[in-house]
């Protein structure tokens, strides 16, 4: 069996996955089991939508647990001390200037992407475009709304 490729993640991202895994294994499993128990008490399972819904939710929960465990087995924390402050790399905190002003993002892998918390994926159009570029450089990115120009104002470490 071939070894799986390492997944580079921030410590924060790994911690969030560990918290989700713990919640799913304890709280969610217990709540779903209780829903199944209550639904079973209704009798006839052939037309018991509560039972069907709870069993489906149980399957989704167990699948997510297996997915998280697989990710965590292959996850490696990005060493903050090895993040370049001269070139955009995964894990860097990057300040970009566009026509609307300044915005700061942490460049993460797709598993950690959260645009509402300014965490963009290295697989996103902007993430891909700025990777490898240096402070002061301008990149042009094709976005859904057309071509957008970004200037890299700062590159820092720390998430």
Task: Reconstruct the topology from this structure.
Layout: E1 7-9, H1 11-40, H2 49-74, E2 75-77, E3 93-98, E4 101-108, E5 119-121, H3 125-130, E6 138-143, E7 146-156
Parallel strand pairs: 1-2, 4-5
Antiparallel strand pairs: 3-4, 3-7, 6-7
Structure description:
With 159 residues, the protein is an alpha/beta fold. 39% of the residues lie in helices and 25% in strands. It has three helices and seven strands; from the N terminus they run βααββββαββ. The strands form two sheets. It has a five-stranded mixed β-sheet. The longest helix has 30 residues.
Instruction: Describe the main β-sheet briefly.
Output: 5 strands, mixed
Nearest-integer average pLDDT: 91
Q: CATH class of the largest domain, anyone?
A: Alpha Beta
Principal-axis shape equals: elongated
**Strand-pairing-aware structural class:** alpha/beta
Could you tell me the radius of gyration in angstroms? 21 Å
End-to-end Cα distance, whole Å, is 35 Å
Helix content: 25-40%
H/I helix tally: 3
Record field, number of beta strands:
7
Provide the β-strand percentage band.
25-35%
CATH topology of the largest domain: Chitinase A, domain 3
State the low-pLDDT regions, or none: none
SSE succession: EHHEEEEHEE
Name the CATH architecture of the largest domain: Roll
Largest sheet strand order: 5-4-3-7-6
Question: What is the count of structural domains?
Answer: 2
**What would CATH call the homologous superfamily of the largest domain?**
Transcription elongation factor, GreA/GreB, C-terminal domain
């Amino acid at each position: 069996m071939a070894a799986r490729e390492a997944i580079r993640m921030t410590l924060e991202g790994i911690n969030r996955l560990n918290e989700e895994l713990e919640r799913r294994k304890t709280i969610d499993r217990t709540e779903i089991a209780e829903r199944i128990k209550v639904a079973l008490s209704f009798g006839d399972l052939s037309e018991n939508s509560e039972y069907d819904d709870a069993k489906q939710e149980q399957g989704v929960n167990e699948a997510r647990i297996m997915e998280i465990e697989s990710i965590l087995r292959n996850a490696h924390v990005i060493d903050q001390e090895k993040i370049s402050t001269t070139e955009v790399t995964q894990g860097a905190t990057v300040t970009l200037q566009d026509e609307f002003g300044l915005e700061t993002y942490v460049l993460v892998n797709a598993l950690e992407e959260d645009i509402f918390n300014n965490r963009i994926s290295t697989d996103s159009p902007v993430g891909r475009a700025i990777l490898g570029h240096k402070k002061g450089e301008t990149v042009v990115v094709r976005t859904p709304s057309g071509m957008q120009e970004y200037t890299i104002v700062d590159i820092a470490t720390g998430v």
